[in-house]
Design brief:
Number of helices: 11
Structural class: alpha/beta
Strand order of the largest sheet: 3-2-1-4-6-7-9
Helix content: 40-55%
Shape: globular
Order of helices and strands: HEHEHEHEEHEHEHEHEHHH
Low-confidence stretches: 1-7, 308-318, 325-329
Length: 334
């Protein structure tokens, strides 16, 4: 009696030249860029976001790039709505090959200045929304024997950020979710759970987020192009053995190393830089941003890279030096 050997792993595109790809948070930023990147490869796309008016132009742009696209208004905090999204994708295209959890919102401000409702909404969107998507996707991946689940995390899943407590909590939780799910699918060679973790991305999300600081948020340069994040996700679909975590951005490695070696010192340094940035920032009204109502923009870029473009390298060097100081400071106080 012979035992059949397991099938050799193959990439999503090798298994299906026109894969079915579900993207949540598809109406702008990374989600929009990712939809276009997959459309250029002939993918069949199911695009999800809260606002149907923003889905329509993105779907149209994807068709112009050579893909098929179906827009389905979905709030990922509603578990039933996410299951309905998966059901519609299967009914329309027959299966799901790739599921990208791309929703991400934030609320910036001192923890006790941010309303509890805002903290709750961030965690519901960033963590529970991904749980809902993962549950819908993995149920179908197990049944069909293959599939790629991509969770968009960020450096915030490894290095906590001051004035973004709920965001940090959601990203740390999402990191744990992914690691747990990877352990659960080790016996399924054609099912993969992957994380993409960029540093600051120049997407509209930074402008759309809730802001309770009373100051205009100006993220540090250099920033990651959303298209680079999109290409990293497409590369996962091209790989027979996609990597578990893909890092993007100049500060990813020094940030992780500094926090691992001296978490308290790094936290002090990050707090100092955050306070400095807020003191220098222009006043801005308090806003709930897109926490409770969807945005109406479909742009990919946030426009932040246009400012001080020539000083990007200087800012990057200062950031690395700051992290090194944080490491030294923390070492001296242990």
């Amino acid at each position: 009696m012979t035992t059949a050997l397991p099938a050799s792993p193959s990439s999503v595109f090798a298994s299906s030249p026109n894969p079915v790809v579900v993207i949540t948070g598809a109406s702008s930023g990374i989600g929009h860029a990712t939809a276009l990147a997959f459309a250029r490869r002939g993918a069949r796309l199911v695009l999800a976001a809260r606002n149907p008016d923003t889905l329509a132009p993105v779907a149209l742009a994807c068709r112009a790039e050579g893909g098929q696209a179906l827009g389905i208004p979905t709030d990922v905090t509603d578990a039933d709505a996410v299951q309905a999204l998966a059901d519609k994708a299967v009914r329309h295209f027959g299966r799901i090959d790739v599921w990208i959890n791309g929703v991400g919102v934030g609320a910036v401000g001192r923890f006790d200045d941010v309303p509890l409702a805002a903290h709750r909404r961030v965690i519901e969107s960033n963590l529970l929304g991904h749980v809902h998507g993962a549950h819908a996707a993995l149920t179908r991946f197990r049944a069909q024997g293959h599939g790629l689940l991509v969770n968009l995390i960020s450096l915030g899943g490894w290095v906590p950020a001051p004035y973004a407590a709920a965001y940090t909590a959601s990203k740390f939780g999402l990191r744990g979710l992914s690691e747990s799910l990877r352990a659960e699918v080790v016996d399924l060679p054609q099912v993969h759970v992957c994380d993409v973790a960029p540093t600051f991305v120049d997407s509209p999300g930074l402008s759309h987020g809730a802001n309770y600081t009373g100051r205009r948020i100006r993220p540090p340069l250099p920033m990651v192009d959303p298209r680079a994040v999109a290409q990293a996700i497409v590369d996962l679909a091209d790989a027979a053995q996609p990597r578990a975590v893909t890092w993007l951005g100049l500060g990813a490695m020094p940030g992780r190393v500094a926090h691992a070696l001296a978490p308290q010192g790094t936290a002090r340094a990050m707090r100092w830089f955050s306070d400095l940035g807020l003191r220098r920032a222009a006043p801005a009204p308090l806003t709930q941003g897109n926490l409770f109502a969807p945005s109406h923009q479909t742009s990919i870029d946030g426009g932040h890279r246009q400012r001080m473009a020539g000083s990007a390298t200087v800012v990057a060097v200062l950031g690395v030096v700051g992290l090194a100081v944080g490491w030294w400071w923390g070492r001296g106080r242990r």
